[in-house]
Amino acid sequence: MKDAFGAPQSLLVLGGTSEIGLATARRLIARRTRTVWLAGRPSPALEAAAASLRGLRPEEDAVTVRTLPFDALDPAAHEETLGKVFAEGDVDMVLLAFGVLGDQGRDEAAPLAAVRVAQTNYTGAVSAGLICANALRAQGHGSLVVLSSVAGERVRRANFIYGSSKAGLDAFAQGLGDALHGSGVHVMVVRPGFVRTRMTAGLSEAPMATTPEAVAHAIEQGLWRRSETVWVPGAMRLVMSALRHVPRTVFRRLPL
After folding, report:
1. Of residues 23, 121, 13, the one with CA closest to residue 70
2. How far, in Å, CA of 20 to CA of 213, rounded?
């Protein structure tokens, strides 16, 4: 298999400027990946991200990095856009890394803003995820890695709009993994805690905060092990297991 042992030759990143997505691409390029697609809204940042990856390998062992216009909020265009990638050859790994945090206070008062969060994080992901999953199944191999969040494990008052969208995404990805079982396609759900990125800049750090590089390392290890679920950091699994069983009357009083 081209994507054997967690070292794909080709990678499609949905959310081409995602810091976690780019950190993952860098780790995989250092090993075996030589073709990368960065899918995102056309922008100087997307082109700069592509250029940064191209510079990681010497000319005699260059990596091919291409950008692809992709908008999570335009699902009607997803099949045509993503189909062009798979039409050029097999894709060993798809990383679904796009998403928005939103602003809880603003979004509660402006339902259309809340809907935008839900459409980006869930509806857009369902569309792109199914299209990529069907293409991977048709080629008979590959991995679909979905960036979820611990925020979806038990939704908190402080960010229930974002958390609920991630809860939906997580459930969708788990079901998709079950649907693809036995097809040769591996689906892996990644549940990071608080990650220090542009998206969380200015927010108070939660305990066990992590970095894009740490998440990328966990993704690489999960690919190697063919894991179905990856927690980052690993101790977050125990924390969320405990919080999941806290009575609701107590949970809503916790300073989370």
Report:
1. 13
2. 7
How high is the pLDDT of residue 48?
Answer: 97
Residues designated catalytic: 162
DSSP secondary structure, 140-177, as one string = T-EEEEEE--GGGTS--GGGHHHHHHHHHHHHHHHHHH
Place of tokens 């260059």: 62
Contact 40, 98 (CB under 8 A): yes
- Residue 208: CB atoms within 10 A of its CB come to 15
CA 214/CA 232 separation, integer angstroms: 8
Residue whose pair of structure tokens reads 């990946």 in the numeric block? 33
135 has a pLDDT exceeding 60: yes
Q: How far is CA 177 from the centre of its chain?
A: 15
Structural contact between residues 256 and 248, judged by C-beta atoms closer than 8 angstroms: no
CA 171, 102, 191, 2 torsion: positive or negative?
Answer: positive
- The answer to whether the CB of 123 falls within 8 A of the CB of 129 is no
For residues 172 and 128, give the distance between their C-alpha atoms in angstroms, rounded to a whole number: 12
Q: How far apart are CA 186 and CA 223, in angstroms?
A: 9
Check residue 121 and report its DSSP letter: I
CA count, 13 A, side-chain hemisphere, 36: 36
Helix (H) or strand (E) holding 108: helix 104-109
Query: What pLDDT, on a 0 to 100 scale, did the predictor assign at position 59?
Result: 82
Helix 44-54 and helix 19-29, axial crossing angle in degrees, nearest 10: 20
* pLDDT exceeds cutoff 70 at 3: no
